[in-house]
Design goal:
Blueprint (H helix, E strand, L loop, with lengths): L1 E10 L4 E3 H5 L6 H8 L3 E3 L6 H16 L8 E5 L10 H9 L5 E5 L5 H14 L5 E8 L10 H4 L5 E10 L4 E8 L7 E2 L6 E2 L2 E2 L8 E2 L1 H23 L8 E4 L4 H11 L10 H4 L6 H11 L8 E8 L3 E8 L1
Parallel strand pairs: 4-5, 4-6, 13-14
Antiparallel strand pairs: 1-7, 2-3, 6-7, 8-15, 9-12, 10-11, 14-15
Helix pairs in contact: 3-4, 7-8
This protein binds acetyl coenzyme *A.
């Protein structure tokens, strides 16, 4: 028995914001952003929400899989930026899709969120609790980004991606590795609501994404290759056995650094961050969907997915397409 991805979908906001557009807002340039990050433009919400994007991506994944919302037994939504604390975004997506029979809940592991949600879905399916799951990563980071901070506002984009997975008899997911390091939480953070009740009230200041870019960079190029090696060792594969490495799209230089450390040719690392920026938990499923719809994923191919980000959280998953 295995668990297989049998459908993918994605959704991006209509509005495209180029580096030149950002140069109208903060002191930056297309040249600086492209050289340091590889990003050329990103989609930014002018009304689309985590929920609306997730619902569209989920609908497309179901269509792609040839399934309907009524089939879905588990709906997991990874996000770091839900519109509401309660109800959770997953339950709102359940309502929009009409997935009445699904159990739905959110999961936050920042940029590793989709991967952690996929692992959670597989664990439920392998335990025999559910037969299938719709796993979504959706972010509208533009509402938690400080649009006066040039060191962060140029990096992120909004969007959602989804994968529909099912229990099956042919090889699918081959293995997972996950790690967290809460001692390094300060390198990338965004505050929530402060304590306020009749007995205490802390200042309620709006909080935005704050990042130590160099620390994030060093963490990613050090830990992600080690994590991928750990995964491949565990399932008895070599780096050369992997057809495509579908990594979190934080930054071109991070992806190139990881490829170098693994001694794998860069053409095995597809990228779309030049068009979409860093979409946190949505990055991996959006890229996967683009590859799927472009016909670049053939049956029998071996893929490694790897997500990494705030927490710190990071992990990798190997699968047979
Ligand atoms: N435009 C122009 N200049 C800028 C910009 C900008 N958008 N942002 C920062 N600078 C300036 C800084 O102010 C600084 O100027 P100074 O020397 O006068 O003080 C100079 O550029 C260098 O700044 P650094 O922060 O040292 O630049 P660095 O080369 O480290 O690049 C970057 C910054 C791109 C953020 C890099 O650290 C990086 O790629 N980090 C990884 C972070 C990342 O990808 N985060 C995504 C979220 S986390 C995740 O998804 C895993």
């Amino acid at each position: 028995m295995s668990v297989k991805i049998i459908g993918t979908g994605s959704a991006l906001p209509e509005k495209i914001v180029t580096n030149d557009d950002l140069a109208q807002l903060v002191e930056t340039s297309d040249e600086w952003i492209r050289e340091r990050t590889g990003i050329g433009s990103r989609h930014i919400s002018t009304g689309e929400t985590v929920v609306s994007l997730a619902a569209r991506a989920g609908e497309r994944a179901l269509e792609n899989a040839g399934r309907t919302a009524a089939d879905v037994q588990l709906l997991l939504l990874a996000t770091a930026a839900p519109e509401t604390g309660i109800p959770c975004a997953a339950c709102q997506v359940q309502s929009i899709l009409g997935a009445a029979g699904a159990v739905a809940f959110d999961l936050n592991a920042a940029c590793a969120g989709f991967l952690f949600a996929l692992h959670t879905a597989c664990a439920y399916i392998e335990a025999g609790i559910y037969e299938n799951a719709l796993v979504v990563g959706s972010e509208v980071l533009s509402k938690i980004v400080d649009w006066t901070d040039r060191s962060t506002c140029v990096l992120f984009g909004d969007g959602a991606g989804a994968a529909y997975v099912e229990r099956c008899d042919e090889p699918g997911i081959l293995g997972f590795v996950q790690h967290s390091d809460g001692t390094k939480g300060e390198v990338l953070q965004c505050g929530g609501r402060q304590l306020s009740n009749p007995y205490i009230s802390l200042p309620q200041e709006p909080s935005f994404v704050k990042m130590d870019g160099r620390e994030v960079f060093a963490f990613a190029v050090r830990q992600v290759p080690a994590c991928i090696q750990e995964l491949l060792g565990r399932i008895g594969l070599e780096t050369g056995d992997v057809d495509l490495y579908v990594l979190h799209q934080a930054n071109r230089r991070i992806v190139e650094g990881i490829a170098r450390r693994l001694a794998v040719a860069e053409d095995r690392f597809p990228m779309n961050l030049d068009r979409v920026g860093n979409m946190s938990s949505a990055a991996i499923p959006v890229l996967l969907d683009e590859l799927n719809r472009a016909g670049r994923l053939r049956a029998g191919m071996t893929l490694v997915l790897s997500g990494f980000g705030a927490g710190l959280t990071y992990g990798a998953c190997a699968l047979r397409w």
